[in-house]
Amino acid sequence: MTDVFVQVTPDGQDADGEEALRSLRRWLHEDETLTGEVRAEVAATEPPVAGHMGASGFDILQLALGSGLSTAALAVSVLQWQLARHRPPALVLSRGALKVEVTPEGARDAETLRRVVELLDRQPAPTGPGGRAADGESDGSAA
Length: 143
Prior knowledge:
The chain is α+β, with helices and mostly antiparallel strands and 143 residues long.
């Protein structure tokens, strides 16, 4: 299994990032082209605060991708979800040190789709100190 992480950018247009991620999770679960090949879990990037029950908010969607998954199908499904939203949020998809930002405008762009597919297809570079690619490779960021 390969892990891909999805976050709503802090300046995303959707006021509730957690609800947007839960909506994307439902969308992926209901997409018949992805049946059984994507396991999605909404999680928090920060550990729980001492003395509190659980995390303060969930801000990341972790996708575990099966080996039989068409990466293009997953990319298209995520972009279709984004375009279907009344107020589409900007998203950041990451895998290892590779990151691609998908703005609502970029979701309609063939180059953005190509970058998302590349992110999903490529083997992530090992990360060094500070989360940077150990071999100096670009992180593949796109707007």
